[in-house]
């Protein structure tokens, strides 16, 4: 059932109140005009003006019967009230500076569109290898304490846990291990280059396209991570898997050692971001588990924001500025000011300070980090970060499939057949495979990996492949770019359009009509002011003449009352 909208009753109340105010003003004006005896002149003057004005309906105030004139006046008054209401709302909306969103989709049909792959940050869920911890039992103890402090799901009250950990840490207060930094531990004991079995772009090795800077290692809170396409130079030329990135990763299942109640998964965390943006494996990261193949489809999206006064604040136009970088730099600066150190040398915006040792991490850094991250008031008081006016994001959709037994068996069969040839073509590599290095062994027709890789994988079994290998297929489903523009949804032109529309529709008016009424008002005021001034002058002159006549009459009366000259008044009795 149709009924009035929620805004109807407030609107009706405002219109009634405005109409009542206008009627009161008209009554006051009428009383004033009667008081100064200019009412008849004003009515006659306005009647002449109404016949010639471009405003609709005004001339009918003085034509027809009394009832028709009253009806026209009521309708005209309602139109005036609604016009004023619309103008008021339009001005209020304009002062709020509202914005909207405009979406644009560009499709690369000519090859001129710059669709680029994001920087891909990959972090093994395992931060420190088991063999490294076995060789360094004291570091194992320290890392177990650090992992426990990071894990809120551990049983026991926080204060009990903290006192227990402090007691454990006291055992190492004089041991050199307490002065080791996390960056040193992650660098020496984190997962190494063997994470990357192979990297292909189309049918070519990644290093053939991106050069020596294909992978870049970065040590941060999530451990020993790697950035693929760190400078954002890789462009998408073909849509689909043929033009995408294929990654075969080794999670090193047997190297997992530390208990992880907070993150019990195995595999890799994968993040896609703008190359200008600092690497940060946050809530948007994908977790890829071993024994699975992941088909990741990307979409490039550029966002453009308006500067103040539009939007929810000002934005920064610097092309290398990012909001997330500013927040990370602010957190690092807060930790530096609080603890006189920074956790890691990378990802801190170039903050100069010594690296935090394990002693600093346990005694200060963890508490400082939690306080600024969890307390928005503290964070807002220290971090004054605006949004970037222009930045890029990469959305993704993921589909997964198990590595089939036939695929795994085919890999083993291929490696076994090529084992002897690989040994002849390239020396066995017992060490670590260089990140981004070009594996130059000859590749037989139908072969998928380099000879060095075949030589190493042949030691694996089918179960080992399923427990360690992660396959990633990263591509753009179509070469298109999405642009999100923040636009002004109600500007000065919209305001003029609303005012002009309601003014013309209900009153038949325009700018010239407003000028007509303004000129008439000024002319009428001048004319009546001059008339009242002339009346006042005439009245003052008449009053002065009357006063002079009165004074002359008084002088005549006084002369008649005085005796003639030479005659003295005789006092009684003389």
In words, what does this structure look like?
β3 and β4 form a beta hairpin. The strands form 3 sheets. Strands 1, 3, 4, 7, 10, 13, 14 and 15 form an 8-stranded mixed β-sheet that branches. This protein is of the alpha+beta class and 574 residues long. 22% of the residues are buried. It is elongated. It has 16 helices and 15 strands. α12 packs across α13. 46% of the residues lie in helices and 17% in strands.
The class by helix and strand makeup works out as alpha+beta
The outline comes out as elongated
Number of strands: 15
Strand content: 15-25%
Biggest beta-sheet profile:
8 strands, mixed
Considering DSSP H and I runs of 4 or more, what fraction of the residues is helical? 40-55%
Number of helices: 16
- In the predicted model, the low-confidence regions spanning at least 5 consecutive residues are 428-458
Mean pLDDT: 77
* End-to-end CA span: 116 Å
Radius of gyration from the alpha-carbon trace, in angstroms = 44 Å
List the defining traits of the structure above:
574 residues, 8-stranded mixed sheet, 5-stranded antiparallel sheet, 15 strands, 46% helix
Task: Show the helix and strand layout.
Layout lengths: L7 H28 L3 H14 L13 H31 L2 E9 L11 E6 L5 H6 L1 H14 L7 H13 L11 H8 L6 E6 L2 E2 H5 L4 E6 L2 E6 L16 E6 L17 E6 L12 E3 L3 E13 L10 E2 L6 H17 L18 H17 L1 H7 L4 E2 L1 E13 L2 H21 L25 H7 L4 H7 E7 L4 E9 L3 H16 L3 H51 L13
Parallel strand pairs: 10-14, 10-15, 11-12
Antiparallel strand pairs: 1-15, 2-6, 2-8, 3-4, 3-7, 5-6, 7-14, 8-9, 10-13
């Amino acid at each position: 059932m149709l009924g009035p909208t929620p805004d109807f009753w407030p609107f009706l109340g405002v219109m009634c109140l405005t109409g009542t105010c206008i009627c009161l003003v008209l009554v006051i004006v009428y009383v004033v005009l009667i008081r100064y005896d200019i009412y008849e002149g004003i009515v006659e003057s306005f009647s002449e003006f109404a016949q010639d004005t471009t405003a609709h309906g005004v001339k009918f105030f003085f034509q027809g019967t009394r009832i028709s004139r009253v009806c026209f006046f009521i309708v005209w008054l309602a139109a005036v009230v609604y016009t004023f209401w619309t103008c008021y709302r339009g001005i209020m909306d304009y002062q709020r500076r509202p914005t909207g969103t405009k979406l644009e989709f560009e499709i690369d049909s000519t090859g001129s569109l710059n669709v680029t792959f994001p920087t891909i940050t990959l972090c093994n869920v395992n931060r420190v290898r088991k063999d490294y911890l076995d060789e360094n039992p004291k570091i194992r103890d320290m890392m177990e304490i650090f992992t426990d402090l990071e894990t809120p799901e551990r049983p026991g009250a926080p204060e009990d846990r903290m006192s227990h950990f402090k007691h454990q840490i006291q055992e190492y207060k004089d041991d050199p291990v307490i002065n080791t930094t996390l960056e040193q531990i992650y660098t020496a004991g984190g997962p190494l280059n063997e994470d990357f079995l192979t990297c292909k772009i189309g049918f070519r090795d990644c290093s053939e396209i991106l050069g020596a800077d294909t992978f870049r290692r970065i040590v941060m809170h999530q451990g020993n991570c790697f950035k693929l396409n760190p400078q954002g130079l890789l462009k998408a030329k073909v849509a689909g898997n043929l033009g995408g990135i294929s990654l075969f990763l080794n999670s090193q299942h047997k190297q997992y050692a530390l208990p992880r109640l907070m993150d019990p998964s195995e595999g890799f965390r994968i993040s896609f971001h703008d190359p200008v943006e600092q690497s940060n494996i946050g809530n948007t990261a994908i977790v890829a588990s071993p024994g699975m193949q992941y088909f990741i489809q990307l979409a490039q999206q550029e966002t453009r924001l308006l500067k103040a006064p539009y939007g929810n604040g000002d934005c920064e136009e610097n092309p290398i500025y990012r909001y997330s970088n500013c927040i990370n730099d602010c957190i690092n600066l807060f930790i530096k000011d609080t603890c006189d150190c920074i956790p890691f040398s990378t990802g801190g915006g170039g903050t100069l300070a010594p690296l935090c040792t394990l002693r600093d991490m346990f005694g200060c850094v963890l508490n400082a980090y939690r306080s600024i991250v969890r307390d928005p008031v503290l964070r807002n008081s220290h971090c004054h970060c605006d949004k970037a006016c222009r930045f890029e994001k990469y959305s993704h959709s993921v589909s997964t499939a198990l590595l089939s037994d036939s695929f795994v068996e085919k890999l083993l069969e291929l490696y076994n057949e090529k084992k002897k040839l690989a040994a002849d073509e390239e020396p066995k590599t017992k060490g670590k495979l260089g990140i981004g290095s070009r594996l130059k062994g000859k590749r037989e027709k139908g072969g998928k990996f380099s000879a060095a890789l075949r030589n190493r994988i042949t030691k694996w079994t089918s179960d080992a492949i399923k427990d360690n290998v992660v396959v990633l297929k990263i591509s753009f489903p179509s070469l298109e770019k999405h642009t999100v523009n923040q636009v002004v949804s109600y500007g000065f032109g919209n305001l003029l359009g609303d005012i002009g529309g309601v003014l013309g529709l209900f009153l038949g008016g325009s700018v010239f009509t407003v000028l007509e009424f303004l000129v008439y008002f000024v002319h009428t005021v001048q004319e009546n002011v001059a008339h009242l001034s002339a009346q006042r002058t005439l009245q003052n002159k008449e009053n002065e003449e009357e006063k002079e006549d009165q004074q002359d009459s008084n002088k005549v009366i006084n002369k008649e009352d005085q005796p003639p000259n030479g005659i003295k008044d005789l006092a009684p009795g003389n």
